[in-house]
Every structure is written in structure tokens, then in C-alpha cells.
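Deadline looming. Please check this record:
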Amino acid sequence: METTPKLTLDVRTIPPAHKHPTIFQTFDSLQPGEAFELLNDHDPKPLHYQLMYEHADEFTWTYLQEGPEVWRVRIGKRAIEA
């Protein structure tokens, strides 16, 4: 089970070329079961596809707000099941 997001990552002011690397660094820093909240100025659907490709069943994705000016997504690292 995921915990409440430990941080909010607002990428609206980050240059486009640095957004995905910053998001992936944040995801990689999570412990299993942890999550963060992403704030963006557009639907981060390409990021979702990239996570699906690179991390398949390792992440969770929950829209918290879907525009029109701000998108909020909770991205979590799945807990390891024993």
C-alpha cells in the first residue's frame, strides 16, 4: 500500500529538456510503497508512456487534477509483495 506522497515535484518552471530526467530521478529515489505528487502545466501522458516502457509494473499513476491549467498526478513505486 502506498503512503501519502512524501513530496510534491512542480515541473512547471523546469526547462522541458530537464523535466523527464528530474521526474525519473525523483521516482528512482522512492522506496517501495512511497509516492510523490507531480504538478505540470499539461497532461503528462508522454511521461506515463515512458514509465510504462521503462518501469512496466513497478509504478502507480493516479490523476488528482486534470487541467485545464494544472495537472496533478500521484506517481508511486509499487510495494514489493512477499
About this structure: The chain has a mean pLDDT of 92. The longest helix spans residues 16-29. The longest strand covers residues 59-66. The chain has one domain: 7-77.
